[in-house]
Amino acid sequence: MDKSVRINRKKNAIRVSKGERIFYIVNYFILTLLGITALYPFLITLANSLSGSRAILAGEVVLFPVDFSLEAYYQITTAAKIFDTMANTVYLTIIGTLLNMLVTIMCAYPLSKKYFPGKNLCVTILTITMFFGGGLIPTFILMKSLHLMDTYLCLWLLGLFSIYNMIILRTFFSGLPPELEESAKIDGANDIVVLIRIALPLSKAVLATLTLFYAVGWWNSYMSPLLYISSPDKAVLMLKLKQLLDQSQLAQNHPEEIGVVRPVIAPESFKAASIIVSTVPILCVYPFLQKYFVKGVMIGSIKG
Amino acid sequence: MKVNVQQVNLSNGNTQRRRRLLRDMKSARYLYMLIIPVMIYIVIFKYGPMYGIIMAFKDYKIGDGIWGSAWVGVKHFRTLFNSYDFYRILRNSLLLNVYSVIFQFPVPILLALLLNEVKCNRFKKPVQSILYLPHFLSWVILAGIVIQMLSPSTGIVNAIIKFFGGEPIYFMSSKGWWLVVFIISGIWKESGWGTIIYLAAISGVDAQLYEAAQIDGAGKLRQIWHITMPAIKPTIVILLVMRMGSMMDVGFDQIYMLSNDYVRDVADVFSTYIYRMGIENIRYSYTTAIGLFQSIVNLILLAGTNWVAHRLGEQGIW
């Protein structure tokens, strides 16, 4: 039986091999090409960041650094003080993500319960905000009138939690076996104890996913800091990066106008180095992201 | 639970019902401790700005406050509908979305079909990692890379064009090329990530179907067309329908990072226009009116797509 199946399979493989082999070759070829195309922009940016200005201006950098130099990195850490900005961003990200998780849990857990008086009201209040909002300017005015301009608190309040992520977590919570909760309740535990002792430990994977989603969101946030943060010492990484990219553009066109940062190296490698420095932290958490995000997306797409 | 409440209600009247409600509320007191702060936050920071919408019908002055400013009726809407800018941003928002549905939407489907046929994990995993990566990077980074690669003087793309004897192309400042850059950079960022949901749908297909098709002599392409495609069709339909709900939205970050003064005619959309007029030019009332217009259109689109989704037998959004 076992043998005949194997023979059968072999026959099959031989019979269809020609068309299939062409298909597989073409498929691997296309995917390899796409992979290289998607990766190459990062590689050339890395190469540019490590190359000397002469080689860049002559267009000699194609894949590997030419006239290897760390000058660009020296410049962005000293003249541009990118690490100060990064410290700001780490602070913004850590506190922001903690608040996000706290509030997401606080909202998702009660809503995962089948019934409590007022649940429908809460759901309605939340749902409306998914489809209609005050808009950019009224929110801006509100923050202004609360004197929250130019504070991180304002950013944290704006992005306190995402309803989509809350739905992911709520869906997960409502899938937990109710027996565990019941037995804990019989032992005298209240809802908050059940949440902390039972529900949260059972949801580690989805909590990790959401934490990463939120953290990446904070790290990459640009629009809110652009609107609400004005003092340079509070600038976050993406604001600073955009500023550096624009400045070195200016340096290229009007070298005499530069007051803040004066790159003595090719603007290309200066820009490339600041791009690389901003990308590296994401690359460091990327393996974790990969491990969890597929799961998170799947849970989210079940209901959402 | 609800049926119970009703039965009790019929037999014993209102007092019983009220007592029961109080008891339920008391037993849920810890749940209230969790959710009430969230609701207070939502009311202040999500519904508060909705109150600010009345600015759209007033001439908002900072000193007078929202309520104290003078009513002007639909003046700002009249200004808006009479301005050339409005038709430009409306056209751009719709066109960019139409292009994106035509050119970006099918890419994750094709990619998922290709990836699904790769059996060797040592090849598949790295390719997936590379394709997913741009999703996690901000537009500041990606646009920075794109602009640098396309630079007419030092960019690698123009270096290749020059190598083959062509004239360098000013990608970022010519309107036609800018649209191409917009679409391709969008594909680069999101299509890898977009494959996940299709791959999941494909993974639910019974492997026996493929074997049966193989025995019947169907080649790979026919298997894809007759087995895989029907399996992911519901996913495609629902994602397409949901995509239609955001036909007026263009992400601020991508436009803001990629655009410049040369391409404003094709790149200016609602979000960038509101930012420029509202924050930079401090025309609060006027831009609130634009925002309100946009929200209402979005609401109509969402309700429409939701209705369509239900008609198609899908779950819809609510």
Automatic annotation (TrEMBL), chain A:
InterPro entries: MetI-like, MetI-like_sf. It is a multi-pass membrane protein. GO terms for cellular component: plasma membrane. CDD domains: TM_PBP2. GO terms for biological process: transmembrane transport. The chain crosses the membrane at residues 21-43, 90-109, 121-143, 155-173, 194-216, 270-289. The keyword Transport applies. It is found in: Cell membrane. Residues 86-289 form the ABC transmembrane type-1 domain. Its main location: membrane. Keywords: Cell membrane, Membrane, Transmembrane, Transmembrane helix, Transport. SUPFAM superfamilies: MetI-like (SSF161098). The keyword Transmembrane applies. Belongs to the binding-protein-dependent transport system permease family. This is Carbohydrate ABC transporter permease.
Automatic annotation (TrEMBL), chain B:
It is found in: Cell membrane; Membrane. GO terms for cellular component: plasma membrane. The chain crosses the membrane at residues 30-48, 94-116, 136-164, 176-203, 286-309. It comes from the Bacteria. It is a multi-pass membrane protein. The keyword Nucleotide-binding does not apply. The keyword Endoplasmic reticulum does not apply. InterPro entries: MetI-like (IPR000515), MetI-like_sf (IPR035906). Keywords: Membrane, Transmembrane, Transmembrane helix, Transport. Pfam families: BPD_transp_1. GO terms for biological process: transmembrane transport. Residues 90-305 form the ABC transmembrane type-1 domain. Belongs to the binding-protein-dependent transport system permease family. This is Sugar ABC transporter permease. It comes from Bianquea renquensis. The lineage of its organism: Bacteria, Bacillati, Bacillota, Clostridia, Eubacteriales.
